[in-house]
Amino acid sequence: MSLELLIIVCVAAIVATALTNRFRLIGPVMLIVAGLVASFAPGAEGAGLPSEVVLTVFLPVLLYWEALSVSLNGMRRALRGIILSATVLVVITSAIIMAAGLAMGLSAGAALLVGACLGPTDATAVAALGKGINRFGRTVLQAESLLNDGTALAVFAIALRVASGGTGVSAASVASEFAISIGAGLGVGVVCGTAAVLLWAKWNASRTDAMLSNLIALTVPFTTYFLAEELQGSGVLAVVACGIVYSRYNGNANDSAIRLVGIPFWSVLTYLMNTVLFIMVGLSLPDIVRRLPHQELVRGLVLIPIIYSAMVAARFVGHHAIIFSIRALDRRPQQRERRTNIRGRLVSTVAGFRGAISLAMALSIPGSFGGTAYEERDLVVLITAGVTLLSLVVQGIALPHVVRWANARPTAVQRREAEELDEETRVLAGIMRDIVEELPSMAQRIGVEDGELVNAIRESYGRREERMLQAASEEEFSFFDEDETALRLECIDFARARVLEARNAGRLDGATASLAIKRLDTEGALLAGPIEME
Fold this sequence. Notes:
potassium:proton antiporter activity, cell membrane, globular, mainly alpha, 21 helices, Cation/H_exchanger_CPA1, sodium:proton antiporter activity, 79% helix, 2 strands, Na+/H+ antiporter like fold
């Protein structure tokens, strides 16, 4: 990437993000548009990402972070539905899209490539645009989006063979390849995740050096992806499985310094990767359009809304087929409690955004097979990008309205979720109460004999317990009431200004002032609560 292109990408990202925040627009769409506009700037000609970079660098990092962030308890509650949606629903969606493409004159290879690219939903898009969905529903959608990438990439590999004119593509070979890809991917992911947990626990040095720890953590998704691909497994599924295992069993191994550095690091890294990916799609579209003959361009533009309609219909029909199959086979009372109504299924359909994963797969299609140019590549990329854009715009606009309509008639799942939030609040308040009860023994264990100090801390945690019980959920909890929080933050701002004033006047050394400001920032963060990074 040249310096001119780097500047163009940065400016496009800044402008798109600023407009998104100012007018509450759909972020990914604005990034694609910004890239499209930036493509006309000098130095942006022929911009694009190498296909191997998209699959081997971007996807492992993006999916690993999403796997670390998903709620495992929520996944367990709906594991059967998630697995079916991540496998059967992807196959159904890809098949229906392929049928629509064949009906409109696409070759079998191109139609299957479009189906494979648009088969999976995108975890990042769901997290960004699905904020109005209830917590359990959002967890299910995110988990489905994580796991369905492995299925889609298995279909994608088969589609590449068909597009290249490969022989020996039969039902038996497809089933065999699919089973090996999924099985080897899951196996490698579980092994790598377990190994990472064990190594982390054994190596004490990694638990005290935040920078080194996060550097080591960054190598985990790449190593996992490489090993799985070498064993003919799904690298993407391996990365997701590794992230889930690591998230579940490594909670106690990391100290607070590692988390305080690591969470912002991963959040910023994945944000930048998503931003670059969407902008590069916008930058590459004009070249794709210019390379396409006029007749093929018109054909692609006609196919976009047709393929999009088939994709949405496939998700709606596929969801119903899976749900009614489960209902027919499982008649247990607890299964009835998990049922969603037609409103909930419509929310799930509309929330099935396509995003960075679909674009990454399309961009990774090689321009030639065995030295022979693949003439339909640009058409496949155009259709995939157009459908993804339609998905983000149409469904992004429609989702808040559909969610409000669905919430007007709460289901048993939503009512149970409200009860669970109350119970979680009581659990967290109970932890504060346990601290109060155990405080004398803690003080004795570490050699603190100041009775007044112990009493002051006991009163502090007692107040935290009371405030936690008053909060509707952990997200609404604060250490102090609104007025006290505001006054304390004002004091911190005053102190920060005075420190800077003393530094500028030469009465404080720069290093001393920097350390004082860091302490004030830490105190302010404690009052304001965790920073929302995504």
